[in-house]
Design brief:
Layout (H helix, E strand, L loop, with lengths): L6 H29 L5 H4 L22 E7 L18 H9 L1 E3 L2 E2 L5 H10 L3 H4 L12 H13 L23 H7 L3 E7 L20 E5 L10 E3 L2 E4 L9 H16 L4 E6 L20 H23 L6 E7 L21 H4 L3 E4 L8 E3 L3 E2 L3 H9 L15 H5 L10 E5 L2 E7 L2 E4 L15 H11 L5 E4 L15 H20 L8
Parallel strand pairs: 1-8, 1-9, 2-11, 3-12, 4-5, 4-8
Antiparallel strand pairs: 2-10, 5-6, 6-7, 9-10, 13-14, 14-15, 15-16
Helix pairs in contact: 3-9, 8-9
């Protein structure tokens, strides 16, 4: 027979059960806090309700309306192409494209990481305005990858990890206006092929390129190192994961591009081709495999060069090459492999090697052939320039950071169109270029023995031994490799740039989304 429990025993048992429940609750909350993703709206605020319905207008009905093809590689470095002096990888078709148009030596992407760069390209706005400051991760991502990323985030203060992914947007908002949406207003047929990386539409169809102004789409939602990485045609999945078809992917994109040109040649069109390669993991078809002097990376790049040649050839066959602007570039600098040429840094870094990438533009009879231009321009300028060519008025309800670069492209006006170019690392403004000067108030320099030496603990531990290491001022005309800090020689210039950087930060803090109030 069970003995009745004394009052003391009842109290002690209740305390034990309560403690266990509290412990389980705290553990659960700790796990939740560790794994949860902070909302980007907490960092930058929400969009005004009127943004999504902004009415685009035609400003110039007599605009030339050329076809526009924008080809972008993934993680291709400045020095990986022949037209920028590369000698290891053969790029005869890209070199021919540069010879038929203009090569731009000072072309910058707006970010040194995949997704933010693409958000800036398609909207003409710095990534922080769109909330895409890092890479959106796929739905259904393996838990192990999530945990590894979270552990790395905890360790970043030690200088061993340099991603800032505690805040991450889920993708491009419908409140943003894309190049495709603007060109559709002018009667363009719009198509996209390749890597989107502005939201995993496999789990949320609202993130699909078709919902952002494109009439047709064939490609993948994100980088090929993110799993799963499915292949889609419009909003229908055709492959659950491209891992098994990686050797064919560049050829498949090329075939789709040629079909699009064939079907759209009767009127103005915009085709955005965002290659999966040469992002890790690398691959190439049998025709190009083991054929380059730069290993698998070179094989992948040489296949992309072939692809560009096929596209240009098809334009000539259709007799529309003289009415088509073809642009070629990369989303950011090289990652594990690849060459940044003479520049310091790589993907994910605010040095020139992370932001300055190859860029050529060809438009026979309109863009001078064989010209080399050193005027700084950005991927943010593509939208305003495309809108101007199509006669579309820029939206007036929001800040547009890109500039109309028609004068620079055609050589009619080579004057600088940007007062400053800003270098962001996720949500952090690290540097600014004004004219020939590049200024950093602080950034990780990736030097032995601590890779991320600007983090608080690493900086504190090295402060006494290394002395004052920040801020940094580089003269890019004399020192394009950013090797010599000349701030002690030019303190007045540094102070002027520092003031400009401060003013930009204050304006960003007051109105990060950049929408007109009222």
């Amino acid at each position: 027979m069970t003995q009745p429990m004394s009052r003391r025993e009842l109290i002690m048992k209740s305390i034990k059960l309560g403690s266990a429940a509290l412990g389980a609750g705290l553990l659960g909350y700790g796990v939740y806090s560790f794994l949860k993703q902070d909302e980007i709206e907490d960092l930058y605020g929400t969009y005004p309700s009127t943004a999504q319905v902004y009415p685009l207008k035609i400003a110039d009905p007599n605009a030339p309306k050329p076809n526009i093809i924008f080809i972008m590689c993934d993680d291709l470095g400045y020095g990986d192409v022949g037209f920028n002096g590369g000698r290891v990888i053969r790029t005869p078709n890209l070199d021919a494209l540069a010879a038929s148009g203009t090569r731009f030596t000072d072309y910058y992407t707006c970010n040194a990481v995949c997704a933010p760069s693409r958000a800036g390209l398609l909207t003409g706005r710095y990534p922080f305005r769109t909330g895409v400051i890092g890479n959106p991760f796929p739905k259904g991502e393996p838990v192990g990858r999530v945990l590894a990323r979270k552990v790395g985030d905890v360790l970043k203060a030690l200088g061993s990890y340099d991603a800032r992914e505690n805040y991450a947007g889920m993708g491009l908002s419908a409140h943003e206006i894309t190049i495709a949406e603007g060109l559709k207003k002018a009667g363009y047929r719009t198509g996209m092929i390749g890597k989107w990386h502005l939201g995993d539409y496999s789990g949320d169809p609202a993130r699909n390129p078709l919902r952002h102004g494109f009439d047709s789409y064939f490609g993948v939602p994100h980088s090929n190192d993110m799993v799963p990485c499915p292949l889609y045609r419009n909003e229908e999945m055709v492959e659950k994961d491209i891992a098994g078809i990686m050797p064919r992917i560049t050829g498949m994109y090329t075939e789709e591009a040629l079909k699009f040109i064939d079907n759209a040649a009767g009127g103005p069109f915009f085709l955005y081709i965002a290659h999966t390669m040469p992002h890790q993991p690398l691959d190439a078809s049998e025709r190009f495999l083991k054929k380059s002097n730069a290993g698998l990376f070179g094989d992948a790049v040489e296949e992309i060069d072939w692809s560009v040649g096929e596209i240009v050839k098809r334009l000539r066959e259709k007799g529309i090459d003289r009415n088509t602007v073809v642009m070629f570039t990369s989303d950011n600098g090289p990652w594990y492999e690849g060459s940044a040429g003479p520049y310091r840094g790589r993907k994910g870094q605010s040095y020139e090697g992370g932001f300055r990438v190859p860029f050529v533009a060809s438009w026979p009879g309109r863009i001078p052939a064989g010209r080399v231009c050193g005027t700084p321009i950005m991927n943010l300028d593509i939208l305003p320039t495309a809108f101007a060519l199509a006669g579309v008025e820029l939206p007036k309800d929001r800040a547009m950071d890109g500039k109309d670069a028609r004068g620079v492209l055609t050589g009619a006006d080579d004057r600088e169109i940007h007062d400053a170019i800003y270098f962001y690392h996720y949500d952090l403004l690290e540097g600014i270029r004004m004219g020939k000067w590049k200024y950093f108030d602080r950034l990780n320099r990736y030097v032995w023995p601590v890779p991320a030496d600007a983090t608080p603990l690493a900086n504190k531990l090295g402060e006494k031994q290394m002395g004052n290491r920040w801020p940094l001022l580089y003269d890019l005309s004399a020192d394009p490799g950013e090797s010599y800090n000349v701030i002690n020689t030019h303190p007045g210039i540094a102070e002027k740039i520092r003031a400009a950087m401060k003013a930009w930060r204050e304006a960003e803090k007051k109105n990060p989304r950049g929408f007109v109030k009222g």
